[in-house]
Amino acid sequence: MNCICTVINPAEEPKDSFEETFDRQNAEQTNTEETTTDDYDWECLSEPEEEDTSIEATRHVSSFAETVSINERVIELKAAFEAEFPVGKTFVEKDTARLEIQSFSKENNIPFETFKSDKPYIKMICKHFGKYRAAKKGEEDIGTGEGLESVAQRPNQTTGRTGCSAFVYVRKDARAVGQPWTIRTSCFEHNHPMSEDRRAYHNNRKLNAEDQELAISLMRAGTTPSETLKMLETRGVNNLIVTDLTNIQQQFCRDNHTNMWSFIKNLESGGHQVRYMTNADERICCVFFIHQHGIDQARKLSECVVIDAVVSQMY
């Protein structure tokens, strides 16, 4: 077995150990003069700067009254939802639970939507549930507002996902036959203001078939969306904004779009075979096209649902 020995030359002084060296250096660094507040020249200090109030705030700051009203509405709706959908409430079917939750939330102007749905469960969340994805390279970071490169700012996203955690989780025991759907857990704590204006959400800004046909006919005749909105308000329609009618105008009142009747007549005049059915109100409820070109054109119509029927024959 080989041994490694250290030979100390008695002529040389032994070096300090690691601990001694560390203690000596630490003592040298901390060996400074003690100073007190009496040593400072307080006369040379400048006066505090006055607050600059020449620049107005660029965004609205909620007043105390507005904050209180928001908090009160959040508390009121939380209590209303907990009373209507307590943990343990049962439903006959999953669709029944979905429709009841959506109907009640729509009445209170807090839209809930389906987040996850499977055979034994369904989870419905507030429209403002979750957060937006993290910013990629070249995009502005949502949390800090800082970007890696100079890019255009994102549009206002405060009306979308705000990190709200409100949800309802309904489940049934798939192993047992005939068991009802039960609310297992829920949370109705919202982290955003509750708008009382039903026009705040797109789901509430829809027209029935009769009012939509009237709006389309007016705008095709040259009426502007603003004037059309005023006419609809005389009929009791108060859930729209001008942008909604502008979108309808873009979709139905341009040269490359036509209504169903004119569309069918144009196909028949071109030699296409078209069959259709009407209801009691003389509105087309079913159309059958033979030619692929007719099917392709029908896909552009919002009131049309295309079903491809394939006939197979065994030989």
UniProtKB/TrEMBL annotation:
<protein>
    <recommendedName>
        <fullName>FAR1 domain-containing protein</fullName>
    </recommendedName>
</protein>
<dbReference type="GO" id="GO:0006355">
    <property type="term" value="P:regulation of DNA-templated transcription"/>
</dbReference>
<dbReference type="InterPro" id="IPR031052">
    <property type="entry name" value="FHY3/FAR1"/>
</dbReference>
<feature type="region of interest" description="Disordered">
    <location>
        <begin position="14"/>
        <end position="38"/>
    </location>
</feature>
<feature type="compositionally biased region" description="Basic and acidic residues">
    <location>
        <begin position="14"/>
        <end position="26"/>
    </location>
</feature>
